[in-house]
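User: Good morning. I'm curious how fe (ii) ion would be positioned relative to this chain. Could you predict the structure with it bound?
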Amino acid sequence: MSRDKYMEWEGDCWVRRGPRLVGSASIRERLDPFPRGLIPYTAKLSELRGPAVVDQALTQVLYGYLRFTEQLELKSINRVGQWIALGELPIEIPRHLRSRAFLLVRDEAHHATVSDDVAGQIERLTGYPPLVAGEPGFLADIAAVSNRSPGIHEADLETAFATISETLISGSLALIPKDESVLPLVRDYAEAHKVDEARHQAFFSEFFEWWWPRLPSRTRGELGPVLPDLCLAFLRPDIGFHQQVLEAVGLSPRQARDWVLESFPEASLGASVRRPLQVTLRVFQRAGVLDDSATADAFAARGLIDGSRDR
Ligand SMILES: [Fe+2]
Ligand SMILES: [Fe+2]
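Assistant: Good morning! Here's the predicted structure, ligand included:
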């Protein structure tokens, strides 16, 4: 990223020039809080329980999405962003990347702030309080990968996860602004976030191509084969969360579990996440990640790339 790009980032980011959604007054319109097309169980819910219950469920899904964003920004991305900015990773990071990491941290803190504010506005608009508590599933998934791989340093695992989540253009960020049946507040929020995230994608692509080849080969050998699990930690639907949403709107625990398993079949996971992963996989390819056969085999075993015989 050139000097000009840096100044563009500094001047054009959401916190400086984007829509000021914090504290904005919205009116309750007959619109969805979240795109129903992204939540497979809404059709069945509408048919069996009616539109008011769908509205309640989509409001809970939106709260979960906003909470996921807050947790991702502050607990994952900004943790790594601060290490990069302050030069605290074991690999020396060039000055221009460290400077941009300060802008990254500022952006993400803003995204978390607006997410919290939008949740408050939606609660005032709808009168529905958030009913699903607890941490989003990706944090437990990362902890599980860490527990299975005690030889991998936490900073390396977190840095790899941050790169994965920041190089994936999230399907939801692209789809929400386009869905005219969704509340303008939510669409404007997702659009402004998407614009910042395009810059972050470029930043993390450049960062990873610097960082990965400079890691000790033993670290790369251990970290490479768990990268597909970190990709899935970000992309996998949060089954526990959706089950709680359905219970919150009146389904029994058994029904909620059955509906969620039917909505998000494990078998379709590999295929459905391949498309959003393409940018991340290209970054990995350029950095030489997939040259390691154990790593390439691990990606193929999860269905994220073709197996060696098909490649
Ligand atoms: Fe963000
Ligand atoms: Fe970001």
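The chain has a mean pLDDT of 90. Residues 176 and 187 are 6 Å apart (CA to CA).
Let me know if you'd like a different ligand tried.
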